[in-house]
Amino acid sequence: MDALARHTGLARRSLQRALTERGLSCRHIVTEARARVAAQWLLESPHGLAEIGFACGFADQPHFTREFARHVGLTPARYRQAFAVRGMQGSD
């Protein structure tokens, strides 16, 4: 939160208020960013779900699955099945 506040030029509390007014939190923004990076890796890499989740900062695969589904609307496995390039599908 402190780094984000410095980056935006706002005091920490001012940033918190601005996010709250928009229905956001620092935690929500960080999780959204992690889910976006994970989505890209799910489509472009042969790595397993647990490895991608861990690399994106999720504590374990259930945490990754829960948060990814909350932000994307699909579990990581279903997302990969639905959108991965055909050649990648057999590499799981």
Automatic annotation (TrEMBL):
The keyword ATP-binding does not apply. SUPFAM superfamilies: Homeodomain-like (SSF46689). The keyword Transmembrane does not apply. Residues 1-82 form the HTH araC/xylS-type domain. Keywords: DNA-binding, Transcription, Transcription regulation. InterPro entries: AraC_XylS_family_regulators (IPR050204), Homeodomain-like_sf (IPR009057), HTH_AraC (IPR018060), HTH_AraC-typ_CS (IPR018062), Tscrpt_reg_AraC-type_HTH (IPR020449). This is Helix-turn-helix transcriptional regulator. It comes from Acidovorax facilis.
